[in-house]
Amino acid sequence: MQLSLTRQGNCPLYRQITNQMREYIRAGAIPVGSRLPTVRELASQYNLTRLTVHTAYAELQSEGLVEAVVGRGTFVAARLPIPTTVQATLDLPAPPPPAWSSQGLLADMMRMTEHPDLLSFAQAIPEATTYPTHELGRSLRSALENPAALSYGSTQGELALREQVAHILLDRGIVTSPELVLITSGAQQAIDLALRALVSPTDVVFVEEPTYVGALELAAQRNQRIIGIPVDASGIKLDALEAACQHYHPRLLYLIPTFHNPTGLSLAAERRQALLRLARTYDFFIFEDDVAGMLAYDDPALPALKALDTEGRVIYGTSFSKMLLPGIRLGMIVAPEAHLLSLLAAKRTSDLFCSPLLQHALADYLHRHHLSAHLQRVRPIYHERRDAILSALQRHMEQCSWTQPAGGFNLWVMLPPQINERDFYLQAIEHGVGFAPGAAFFTQPQARASLRLSFGSHSPTRIEQGVAILGNLLRQQLAEIERLATRTGMTGSLL
Amino acid sequence: MQLSLTRQGNCPLYRQITNQMREYIRAGAIPVGSRLPTVRELASQYNLTRLTVHTAYAELQSEGLVEAVVGRGTFVAARLPIPTTVQATLDLPAPPPPAWSSQGLLADMMRMTEHPDLLSFAQAIPEATTYPTHELGRSLRSALENPAALSYGSTQGELALREQVAHILLDRGIVTSPELVLITSGAQQAIDLALRALVSPTDVVFVEEPTYVGALELAAQRNQRIIGIPVDASGIKLDALEAACQHYHPRLLYLIPTFHNPTGLSLAAERRQALLRLARTYDFFIFEDDVAGMLAYDDPALPALKALDTEGRVIYGTSFSKMLLPGIRLGMIVAPEAHLLSLLAAKRTSDLFCSPLLQHALADYLHRHHLSAHLQRVRPIYHERRDAILSALQRHMEQCSWTQPAGGFNLWVMLPPQINERDFYLQAIEHGVGFAPGAAFFTQPQARASLRLSFGSHSPTRIEQGVAILGNLLRQQLAEIERLATRTGMTGSLL
Q1: Residue in B closest to A213 by C-alpha
Q2: SS3 for B228?
Q3: Nearest CA distance, A38 vs chain B (angstrom)
Q4: A226 and A315: one domain?
Q5: Which of A13, A260, B113, B144 could disulfide-pair with A256, CB 3.0 to 4.6 Å?
Q6: Are B193 and B116 in the same domain?
Q7: Residue A239 included in any domain
Q8: Which residues of A touch B327 (CB under 8 A)?
Q9: Do B378 and B466 share a domain, yes or no?
Q10: Gap between the Cα atoms of B220 and B240, Å rounded
Q11: Phi, psi of A429, rounded to the nearest 5 degrees
């Protein structure tokens, strides 16, 4: 590496270093993983101050091109970020920083469940009293008598369960066969397997903006290039999607078309066919996450996108966690035939198979037609709670706007523009109420504070209490901002 | 790119092109993914015949440096192979091809379990009649009464189980705390999580040669650079390991030091400390796979390598599949503290958590001290079967050599050099006996045919029957080769 630096002109020395090194790194002339000269070495070689070199290195680091390792030096980053020049000219959303880092937030959300005193709307948990303990106990006893349930299982999943799954998916409009069903450890593993099997780390993956936290964390961990596509009240915006397709050539769109997480809204019927046409035109696959699809309150939900898929573009994934109970940790993929083998290989290398004991128990439970009875029992409960939260929001948080889900148990609230999300979040916890802060669901920072309220596990009375506390807190914060604005004569409205 | 070619000297033109282009590619001067000039362009630019350029490109392609795409041209390969010059001078094994592809073989082995008539030694399965159905049923009933067992679980695993696990690991010499235990979906997921958390795809991973099929398939799926280190009767060869360390800078060594899969042998005591010293000197981590560590026949096995690990270099993984039963699909990692958070993030993105229902049931089972009673019951069974298979090999397959495991239920057989592994494998199945062919366990093709016999699930009588059939087949094949050699006057001994 040879730098050519000049003290003439008005480009500062540190920027000349940054620019030239960036070129070297992008061209591969300084290979990935190699150590840069130390600050001291470079300063002495080119007769520069150490501060100049240090500033240049910090700049490269902030661009994601190099990484500093304490005590070891500065190294060319293993995964170079996408050049930003492309985006700038296209006026498309910039790609997210290489590591989406709500890890602390996820840890917070986990910790919330361990606080018995906290009234938490953070996690999307079903009502525990509906869990079919008795029926499941009987099915487990029956499974224990089956020798196949105790030994090694099939990677694809036990046939008895796959048959039942193919049957219940008819309710989502999906006509499939047990041969195309793959049993997974919940929907999270379904997403992970789809990425492992279909998507290389250099491929671009599209997601809705906002979307499920677990998909974002997975993408960040893979260093996957992800692009968020905005949604409106009818779901993903197809014009924005098409514009992005023209420039990023996505391999996969991760989508929650029915009772979307976090908003609770569904993709409109007229957009579904158009979306599949786009998938064909731009040759990408869709992972359809349908974890809440069975939880429509009144009218049945629209059929799954998979039901419209005539050419194997949709990988369908769901889980029994929301519709039945989380504790059995079982979900599924309905695979396009062309991808079945690579999905099976991904499952095999991930964890070989799911517990056949649980699979046979669940198959027995489903075989006895308990699921439809269970769904008939739980839907009115979530309906009542949805009504309770809408009514409470109306009375206590009229300064906000929110969504009106027709199924599932997630609801999205946009706070007034003056409110700072982190302040509101931390103070709410101090006042005894938890929620999932909006930032967790986006690939990029958002100007407007928002939050997700998951109301599945709380009675109408508790919902009313919790929202009242949030409403009080909101009024206090707005009053304090108003007081400061009046006193100082400033608005702070751009902050 | 500028080539400097001369018609003087005795280096042919095509080789000069190959040599110089190789340098350019390795230096990054022709970036990964970029298109080389067409054969026609380069020939015309340097006044060469097209055949010369074509030969040079074919050479680069066979080295894995470039890839030809029909109709589009020749491109610098996305993943450059490890330079072979290093190996040539060191007499080290060449790196494996990028995709280890025993997928068909794994599918075969899966299919074998579905053939009720086949006497299969292919899969390492415990004796099914030892599965503790009754005790487990009681523990499951108890778990069903625990509301925590039905809802979302902790990513790290239920504390009740982690406490029990920390306790039983004392038997392997491991003193740890529940805070460092992470519950996994079997040992396969433990390996997968360790790679996800600690190893980037460009890192080099060492494995024993031979080693566990599932680790090889996982590495191939990740396109991981893996290097096999040979073993002898005392385990991994430390001189070969050190020589390889000096050139490949491994990030991780995947190791099965106790009742190794597939050989059944254990790493000698005196090599264990020396191995940890090497890990320190060359700064790599060790994943210790200990799935059979609890299954010593007489004398207890050597303590786990983890028991000697004073500086957090060993990630310990095991599973209840061999020591108890596969159907509950639970295993664990004991993590070095520094890697706990990234292992947890890997678990979260993989499948969030393991079924708390099964975890609480297993915790209850362990809490009642059933495991040690179970182990006392099963060890003599596997001991007797090991004796049966040794005796049968002695009587029916004296032309072979084999290992003498002191625990677990895998044994390794080397066939006479005349025998072709695939022929023997397919014919054995035709004769009603299955086994795991040796090729599945190596990163590279082997000259000598070998096989793994897993005898855990077969009675001494069945073992005798199966080995007798293999012995008959072997004699037939040897006789046929002898007959052909006599008739033709050829030996074919190098084939």
Answers
A1: B349
A2: strand
A3: 21
A4: yes
A5: A260
A6: no
A7: yes
A8: 149-153, 355-357
A9: yes
A10: 22
A11: -65, -40
Task: Judge if B165 and B308 occupy the same domain.
Answer: yes
User: Is there a contact between B357 and A321 if contact means CB atoms under 8 Å apart?
Assistant: no
Least CB-CB distance to B217: which of A141, A329, A348? Answer: A348
Residue B262, preceding peptide bond in cis (omega within 30° of 0):
yes
Q: Which CATH number is A363's domain given?
A: 3.40.640.10
Query: Mind giving me the DSSP string for A337-404?
Result: GGGHHHHHHHHHHHHS---HHHHHHHHHHHHTTHHHHHHHHHHHHHHHHHHHHHHHHHHH-TTSEE--
Q: Do B207 and B116 share a structural domain?
A: no
Nearest CA in chain B to A219: B349
Domain of residue A74 covers 13-80
Rounded to an integer, what distance in angstroms lies between the CA atom of residue A477 and that of residue A420? 9
**Structurally, how many domains does chain A consist of?**
3
CA angle A252/A253/A257 to nearest 5° reads 145
How close is the nearest chain A Cα to the Cα of B227, in Å? 19
Q: Please list, in sequence order, all residues whose beta carbon lies within 8 angstroms of the beta carbon of residue B25, skipping any fewer than 6 positions away.
A: B60, B65, B66, B76, B80
Q: What ipTM did this prediction achieve? A: 0.80
Beta-carbon separation of B351 and A329 below 8 A: yes
Domain-embedded: residue B94: no
Nearest Cα residue in chain A from B114: A154
Is B125 close to A29, i.e. CB distance below 8 A?
no
Taking only the tens place, the pLDDT of each residue in A239-288 is 999 999 999 999 999 999 999 999 999 999 999 999 999 999 999 999 99
Q: Name the nearest CA neighbour of B208 among B404, B468, B441, B467.
A: B441
Whether A353 and A389 share a structural domain: no
Please indicate, yes or no, whether residues A426 and A280 belong to a single structural domain of this protein: no
Which one of A355, A364, A409 would you mutate to disrupt binding with B, by most B Cβ within 10 Å of its Cβ?
A: A355
Min Cα distance B357 → chain A (Å) is 6
User: In terms of domains, do B389 and B307 share one?
Assistant: no
Residue B495, domain member (yes or no): no
In sign, the C-alpha dihedral spanning A31, A37, A43, A47 is: negative
Cα pseudo-dihedral B444, B447, B449, B453, rounded to 10 = -40
Q: Considering B314, B341, B370, which residue would you say is the last residue of a domain?
A: B370
Residue of chain B minimizing CA distance to A198:
B221
Alpha-carbon gap: A121 to the closest alpha carbon of chain B (Å):
14
Nearest to A27 among B28, B144, B153 (CB): B28
In eight-state DSSP terms, residue B237 is: -
Q: How far is CA A60 from CA A14, A223, B32, B349, in A?
A: 10, 18, 21, 29
Question: Hey, are the CB atoms on B153 and A329 less than 8 Å from each other?
Answer: yes
Q: CA angle, A295 as apex, A294 and A298 as ends, to 5°?
A: 110
Which chain B residue has its CA at the smallest distance from A33's CA? B202
Rounded CA gap, A17 and A60, in Å? 10
Q: Which residues of A touch B106 (CB under 8 A)?
A: 348
Q: Do A348 and B214 touch (CB under 8 A)?
A: yes
Q: In this complex, which of B78, B128, B147 lies closest to A151 when CB atoms are compared?
A: B128
CA distance A156 to chain B (A): 11
pLDDT per residue, tens digit, chain B (495 aa), is 788 888 776 677 887 888 888 777 776 677 777 888 888 888 888 888 877 787 788 778 777 788 877 677 888 876 655 433 333 333 444 444 333 455 567 777 777 777 778 999 999 999 999 999 999 999 999 999 999 999 999 999 999 999 999 999 999 999 999 999 999 999 999 999 999 999 998 899 999 999 999 999 999 889 999 999 999 999 999 999 999 999 999 999 999 999 999 999 999 999 999 999 999 999 999 999 999 999 999 888 999 999 999 999 999 999 999 999 999 999 999 999 999 999 999 999 999 999 999 999 999 999 999 999 999 999 999 999 999 999 999 999 999 999 999 999 999 999 999 999 999 999 999 999 999 999 999 998 888 999 999 999 999 999 999 999 999 999 999 999 999 989 988 876 655
| B264 within domain boundaries | yes
